[in-house]
Structure formats: C-alpha cells, structure tokens
Amino acid sequence: MNPPLSPVPEDSRSPLIPSAPSAAWLKTLGRIENSPVADPAIRALQRGIRSLPLGDVRDLLRGRPLGHPVHPVLVQVPIGCWLSAAVLDVVPRPAVRSAPTILTAVGLAGIAPAAVSGWTDWADLPPEQARVGLAHAVTNVAAVAFFTGSLTARLRGRSAKGKLWSLAGLAAVAVSGALGGHVAYRRAIGGA
Length: 192
Prior knowledge:
This protein is mainly alpha-helical. It has helices at about 20-35, 40-50, 55-60, 70-75, 75-90, 100-110, 110-120, 125-155, 160-185. The chain is globular, with a radius of gyration of 19 Å.
C-alpha cells in the first residue's frame, strides 16, 4: 500500500506561466466571463431551472450524496463512447464496423442525465461562471448535433460521412470540455 500523498507547500510551487495558446484561451474565457450580453437569458434560464419541483432529486443531481458533483461523472458515458467510436473507426477490421454505430448511439443516450445534472449545477452559478457555462452548454448542443448526424449517416450506410460527423463532434466535445473544466476546476465551482 502506498503512503498518502502530501500536498506540495504553497510557497514551493512555481507560478504557472501559460503558453501563448493557453494565454489566448484564457483571454477569450475572460471576455466571455465579463460580457453581460447573455445575462438576461441566463437569469431567465436559471430562475426556470431553480423553480422546477425537483425536491430531493435536485440534491442527487448536484451530487450531494456522493460528496462531489455528479455531472463530471455522468459525462464520461457519452465522451467515452464517442472517443471509443472514433478509435474503432480507424481499425480496418470488418468485425468492428457496427461497434462505432452502437457506441455513438449509447453516447447519445447518455446525454440526458449528464445534461440535466449540468443544468442543475449551472442554475446556481454566479454571472461570470454562468456565462462560460452557457458557452459550454451551447458547444454541447453542437456536439450532440454532430453525433446525431454521425449516427444518422451510419444507420444509412454512409460510414465515411458518419466518421466525418464524429470527428466534428469530438472537436466540439474538446472545446466543451475545456469550457466546462474552466468552470468546474479553474473557478472551483462544485455542487456538493
């Protein structure tokens, strides 16, 4: 059994100096955080979500029984399926041809619980984080649309087109993950 990890003392950490792409990304996130353009829509959505009669389900969706947010756990299903589908797309074996279609469909089926838990967390965020959270949600809508296009193409026997839609979906998921990670980790927002 390994000994527990001890935290690094604060004064021994070197400051993080972001690379040029990271600095540009953080600057873009700062613009989103400080732009009040979407605030009326954000306030209306947050009020609507908070007013839903969820009772104890709200705590479950926020992850309180687990002691940590449940949304990051739930997003593993669609992301894992879609990444696996992309890997199988490049495997040149006939036996795995239907596997990407199945994984894409399962990923789409896993969206609902992840989205509901994410919206539940988002409804209580302050304006700066809610703005980036809304960009995260919009990017997720794009990802779902791309993966729906992928599934549709695959079911119609157009696997090459399905692969292209899948790659677009993975790109959207990557951007969405970076946005969600910024809200959850850089800004230390959590529901538990």
